[in-house]
């Protein structure tokens, strides 16, 4: 027996050189590879394996069966990844839509506020023009009064549609009272 065969720990070691003591004990129909000492199976032995169970109790599967099973599993994983990607894309699109709606609303509010400020300036300018007119310019006062009414109506329409402007107006009324 080869003295290198057993280590101190009791584990067997694999050597690249063949164990000459065992080569003559193998059956003649099994060839031994000297590098790894694994026997080759011939066609008769492979045919016998197809119907038998291995020691673990699992039926022997052909390469095609294993490939089919692997392909099925790969398709299932690909489908799962595609579904996860689709769900993530939908979630991101929803977030983007909500963000865009918020930006749109903020832009509309700031635009209304700018229009309200401009209309208030126009209203004040018209009041100043009316006050500056002499009492005998009645026709001019009426025209300016109509323009003032239109500007005031537009301003009221804008402030009623903007919650921030309504809040500012109510605060101004409370301070005045």
Overview of the molecule:
The structure is a single chain. This protein is an all-alpha fold. The protein has 2 domains: 54 residues, no CATH class; 114 residues. Helix content is 67%, strand content 0%. It contains 5 helices and no strands. Helix 3 runs antiparallel to helix 4. About 3% of the residues have low confidence.
Write the layout of secondary structure elements.
Blueprint (H helix, E strand, L loop, with lengths): L19 H4 L19 H7 L13 H70 L5 H24 L1 H14 L1
Helix pairs in contact: 3-4, 4-5
Low-confidence segments, ≥5 residues, pLDDT <50? 5-9
Structural class from helices and strands? mainly alpha
Mean pLDDT: 73
What would you call the shape?
Answer: rod-shaped
Cα gyration radius (Å): 47 Å
Protein traits:
177 residues, mainly alpha, 2 domains, 5 helices, rod-shaped
